[in-house]
Amino acid sequence: MIGKIAGRIDYRGEDHVLIDVRGVGYLVYCSERTMAGLPNPGEAVALYTDLLVREDLLQLYGFPTLLEKEWHRLLMSVQGVGAKASLAILGTLGAEGINRAIALGDCNAVKAAKGIGPKTAQRVVNELKDKAPAVMAMGGALGVALVPDDAVLEPVEAPVAAPRATAAKARSRGTQAAQAEALSALTNLGYAPGEAAGAVAQAAGDAPDAETPALIRAALKLLAPKG
């Protein structure tokens, strides 16, 4: 199993890149969202990968974080969702968006992905709703993007936009960690994982930059008995 690739981008296609790892080229398919975040040809890159093995096919799929790779694995377990459909969902929603959509039972969000019909979207939500809390709880640890190993690759000059991209990734990691911590706190208080995940997802959607204490308070208000 090839679980990680680190090298330089040889060329970029519409939905894949060729990564040169010490003279060996690996063709890696990625979601539209991941493709948009990859550097230019000649620059260093590192991706987590999942190898699809079939009788007549070997294909690598690349992900910036283990969290996204975990969602790809879960999406592929749903009947009717293959690698292409999984990448379409990931490309439209991202890992955090899938967390939120499944926790809230939002089939329309899943259906917004290219090629995903209402029945498939419903199956994704129904079959993964009990697994979403566990993935959310791992979000902080699994949401860190890979950095190319300088011991293997020659240093490359960072693009001008790198500081902004780094800040965005840092905010994303902070959001994932806050949601994971809030979910853990609510389950420790005795709330069922499913309802806790739904409340945290809704609270995070209302206040994307909220830190853990604020998320917990907002989620508790959502979980409080009405009337």
UniProtKB/TrEMBL annotation:
Gene that this polypeptide is encoded by: ruvA
Notes on the domains: Has three domains with a flexible linker between the domains II and III and assumes an 'L' shape. Domain III is highly mobile and contacts RuvB.
Record's keyword annotation contains Nucleus: no
Organism superkingdom: Bacteria
Record family assignment: Belongs to the RuvA family.
Primary site of residence: cytoplasm
Name of the protein in question: Holliday junction branch migration complex subunit RuvA
Keyword field: Cytoplasm, DNA damage, DNA recombination, DNA repair, DNA-binding
Domain Helix-hairpin-helix DNA-binding motif class: 73-92, 108-127
Keyword DNA-binding: yes
Chain positions covered by the region annotation Domain III: 176-227
Pfam families cross-referenced by the UniProt entry: HHH_5, RuvA_C, RuvA_N
InterPro entries in the record: DNA_helicase_Holl-junc_RuvA_I, Hlx-hairpin-Hlx_DNA-bd_motif, NA-bd_OB-fold, RuvA, RuvA_2-like, RuvA_C, RuvA_C_sf
GO CC term (a single one): cytoplasm
Description of how the protein assembles with itself and partners: Homotetramer. Forms an RuvA(8)-RuvB(12)-Holliday junction (HJ) complex. HJ DNA is sandwiched between 2 RuvA tetramers; dsDNA enters through RuvA and exits via RuvB. An RuvB hexamer assembles on each DNA strand where it exits the tetramer. Each RuvB hexamer is contacted by two RuvA subunits (via domain III) on 2 adjacent RuvB subunits; this complex drives branch migration. In the full resolvosome a probable DNA-RuvA(4)-RuvB(12)-RuvC(2) complex forms which resolves the HJ.
Native source species: Rhodalgimonas zhirmunskyi
Function noted in UniProt: The RuvA-RuvB-RuvC complex processes Holliday junction (HJ) DNA during genetic recombination and DNA repair, while the RuvA-RuvB complex plays an important role in the rescue of blocked DNA replication forks via replication fork reversal (RFR). RuvA specifically binds to HJ cruciform DNA, conferring on it an open structure. The RuvB hexamer acts as an ATP-dependent pump, pulling dsDNA into and through the RuvAB complex. HJ branch migration allows RuvC to scan DNA until it finds its consensus sequence, where it cleaves and resolves the cruciform DNA.
GO biological process: DNA recombination; DNA repair
Domain I: region residues: 1-64
Single GO MF annotation: four-way junction DNA binding
Subcellular compartments: Cytoplasm
